[in-house]
# Entry
Amino acid sequence: MADLKLVPYLNFEEGKNTYFPAWTIPDNAVKEAYNTRYERGKWFTRGGITQINDTAASGNAVTSMFRWYKDASTKFTLWASGVKLYFLEETTDELLEIKTGLTTGKRLRFCDAEGVLYCCNGTDNNFYINNYATTLNGALTNDTQGNNAQATSIDVTSILGFPTSGTIFIGGEGITYTNITSTTLAGALADDTQGNNAQATSIDITDASAFDSSGTIFIGNEGITYTGKSTNKLTGCTRGAVGTREAHSNLAVTYRGRLTTIARGAYGTRAAHSTLATVYCFKSTDFSTDVKFDNLIWHLNRLRGYKNHVTSGLPQPAVYWSDVNIADANSLDDNVSPVSIPNSETIQNWVVWQGIILMFTQNMIYQWTGTSAEETFDIRSRYDGVGTSSPDSVVKLQGGVAFINTSDSFLHLYNGTTSQILGFNQQDDYKRINNDYIDKVFCFVRDNKIHTVAPLDSATAPDYCLVYDLLNGRDYLDHGYSPVASVVYDREKTAGKEKTYIADSSGYLYRYDFGTSDDGVAIDAYFITKSYEWGRFDLNKDWRSFRLHGRSTTTNLTITYDLDGANTFAGTVTLDSDNKFYFAAYSHDIAFKFRNAVLDSVMSVYGFILGGHAKYIGGER
# Structure
């Protein structure tokens, strides 16, 4: 008998390849890949997800998610469900309500600029949210009481920017309050270091009975410390100790840092909090109430919004643009004027790429260019071969803007000149997107991969994630998440600290955290090789040996084989202690399926060595 032929298959750098016919698949590629990745020389199981909230938000679908970067160190995860807007307290995974009154089912759009978050949905009044942070001035115990031996009041270090009634958030607890202790000035203050009524370091107020013998008062945007109190006179004052020193009129409202008529545990979980624990307060204010924008964008130091223009009930080929001055959020400059869009097309989405605004309509990509002066802007067509872009699929890349084209369901890249399909191997999977529900597709970029969450085949809501690797053109298919994904987001700017969340149609939130299970459910991961035939069609083979190269073992890895394209994978590879298997199978070709579906376990396969004898059909060669 001829010597045993050993053929190594230790390099699968081609990833998944769905070329047809199957025999054209290269040896360093696989035919199917499901919940797996090929990176760093091996196939391994994708990361898992973990459920965040035990109670569904409003019992409604999550319609919008956003990562708000208020500043370099303050980040909030916001999401809209039903009529409410929530933020996720990430240390406790509590969902805390910050606004209500939204229209159920409307997709909220966000734009953050200079520490302020702007929101619109095309129906409700446009609004912006500012977050103010301070600290507790006295510890809170885990009961219904306030701090500093108060039954229904809480002392905080500062109330600058706080609404007179609202909600504060400490850890995973939201606490409502209905008032802030206050009085009024008894004499105006100039914009200097002086007190009022010709006093150098003293300030007269109308009633000081509710104020401590020393502390801080807050007027407008200024916090003033004082060291003593005599009847209604505060002494030893230091102007502008907190905030900005400014002039204040006689009888200007003067606050102390005391929130009254509190309700502990109004949102989240009531807990104990230490002195100087961080306190957040979100303040919401309407803007541009006359024109309700469908979307917002930050460009050339201006916030700009668009809305389809309607005259006498008939759609017009125009878009409203709002030139909102961000520098002074309390005095918004709304210069609203219509700018013509050709062909009466509706903008699906827009992005700022390489300093210009790209607008995606049903059949065109438009460019809006110019300077910060409104009247100098010009709209011109850039590319007319895109077909309709799925609204929430548009993502920015370094080399262009990617989107799902509803005409062919493929992932396209617009590079500033033309549009092209990304990759070739992806097409079989992307063709499965249910075009009737393609408007539900979401794309996000993470780890140099475009993730497309989409409804495949007959599904009416996103149930698969198509993953396209930008570095090498490989693509993968993920499934089995516990939720039916309705929104996915990823905007973390620091490498290695990305947070990706998946929300479902029932109001539950899940974090894609690279765990080893889907919230306690094993991840069913597998890949299927091509059918190996060792060259000539006129040769059959006696398959005799198999040796696995990888860190997986029989405890978490199932290997089966299929002969001559039967697609049954009825044969089982049983590895010994050296990861070897000896078998006797006779066929023209053989394919292998590597699968891991064991809870809290991952697959890690580098490759294998296959041994056998090649024979002429009807006899040994």
User: Anything to note?
Assistant: The longest strand covers residues 604-616. Helices lie at 427-430. The mean pLDDT is 84. DSSP finds one helix and 56 strands in the chain.
